[in-house]
Amino acid sequence: MRFDLPDLPDTRTLRGELRAFLAEHAPGWTAEQRARSWMGFDRGFSRALGERGWIGMTWPLEYGGHNRSAMERMVVLEELLAAGAPVGAHWIGDRQSGPLILRVGTEEQKRRILPGIARGELAFCIGLSEPDSGSDLASLRTKATRDNQGWVLEGRKIWTTFAHRSDYMIALVRTAPAPEGGSRHAGLSQFLVDLRRPGITIRPIRDLEGEDSFNEVTFDGVRLDAGDLLGVEGRGWAQATSELAFERSGPDRVLSSFPALAEAMDALPEAATPEAGRLVARLWALRTMSLGVGGMLQRGEDPAVEAALVKDAGNAFEQALPERLRALLDPPDRPEPLERMLGTLAMLSPTFSLRGGTREILRGIIARELGLR
Q1: What is the CA radius of gyration of the chain?
Q2: Where residue 49 falls among pLDDT bands split at 50, 70, 90?
Q3: What CATH number is associated with residue 104?
Q4: Do 139 and 67 share a structural domain?
Q5: Does residue 336 fall inside a structural domain?
Q6: Quick one: 218 and 271 in the same domain?
Q7: Residue 247 confidence class, pLDDT cut points 50, 70, 90
Q8: pLDDT digit string, tens, across residues 283-300
C-alpha cells in the first residue's frame, strides 16, 4: 500500500474565503454543536454553502457541479471540520451518494438529483446495516421484488444516520437469492428510495446525549418505480463497497475531535508541549494519508484497502484525543468551551469506530491485503 501525496494547488485564496464565511456563522454555534461537527444538521447552513459553490465541487457543470479539483474540495472539508460546522444536512450526499449517482446512475437520475444536492437542498442517508446482521452485511434480508409496475420493497434498516431528516436513502437490498454454494454477495442491488413514499416508518434511536441521529427504518410494501434501481441489478455489492472508499478516507475520519484540540492549544502548559507536538505530528501524518487516498479517487482508482487503513488509524486518533487532552489539562485550567466539548465527545466518540464500518471489519480488509488471512 502506498499513499503518494498528489500535486496540491495553491488554495490560500480559497481558505481565506472559507474562513471569512465561517467567521460570519461561527458565533451562533455552541461548544456542544462544534464538538458534534459533521453530525450537526442545519439545512440553512448547507444551502448557504451550496450558494457559494462548495457542495458538489468536483461534479460536471451540467449536473449542478463546479468542475473544481478533489484537492480544492478537500480544503473545504478540512475548514468546515476544523471549525466544527454543522454540515450533516449535505455531508452524506456530497461525500458518497452524489458521487455514486454520478458514477452509476442513469442520465435522468443525475439530472433530477445531483443539482439538488449541490444546492444544499437534498439530504441523503445510507441504508446498509440491518437488525440481527451485525457487521455481516451480506446476510441482509431486506428485499425488493419485481412486479409489472416496478418493485416492492420489504424489510428493515438500522443505525441509519439522519433517516428522519433526509429526503432520500440509497438502500442495498436483495433482488435475487444468493446461489447455493456461491457468493452471498450475488443478487444484491441498490435503490434510490424517496423517503416520502407510503409504507416507510422511521423510528429514531436515541444516543447517550439524548440525540436521535440514528434511526430504524421499516419498509412495508413500499412501491418503487423501475427507474429507482441505481446502477446494475445484481451489482449492488460491488457498487456499495466502492462507495465506502469515499466514506472511509476523508478528513471526517481524522478531524472529528479537532475543534477540542484547537480550543486546548492556547491553554496547554509548557510541560505539555512535547505531547502536544506528538499529537499534531500524528494528525499531520493521517492528513497526508487521507490526501493520498483523495488523489487515488481523483485518478479513478479503487483505494478500498487504503481507505480502510485511513479510517482505522484516524478513528483511533480522534477517539483517543479527548482523553489525551483531559490528561494534559487539569479541570481548573480547562477553558469553559473546552470542558463542554470534552463532555460531548465523551458520549459521542465511541461511535467514531462504528460509523462507516466497524474496526473489526476494517482490520479484516487490511489483513487480507497483507496476506494475513
Answers
A1: 21
A2: very high
A3: 1.10.540.10
A4: no
A5: yes
A6: no
A7: low
A8: 999 988 888 887 887 777
CA distances from 115 to 50, 121, 252 (A): 10, 9, 23
Nearest to 83 by CA among 59, 61, 54, 57: 54
| Residue 350 structural domain | 250-369
Whole-angstrom Cα distance, residue 31 to residue 219? 37
The 10 Å Cβ neighbour count of residue 14 is 18
pLDDT of 71 > 80? The answer is yes
Higher pLDDT pick, 275 / 208: 275
- Residues with Cβ within 8 Å of 27's Cβ and at least 6 positions away in sequence, in order, are none
Q: Which three cell numbers stand for residue 125?
A: 442517508
- The total number of structural domains that make up the chain: 3
* Alpha carbon distances (Å) from 330 to 131, 265, 272: 42, 14, 12
Residue with cell 508541549: 273
4 Cβ contact list (under 8 Å, min separation 6): 292, 295
Confidence of residue 135 (pLDDT cuts 50, 70, 90): low
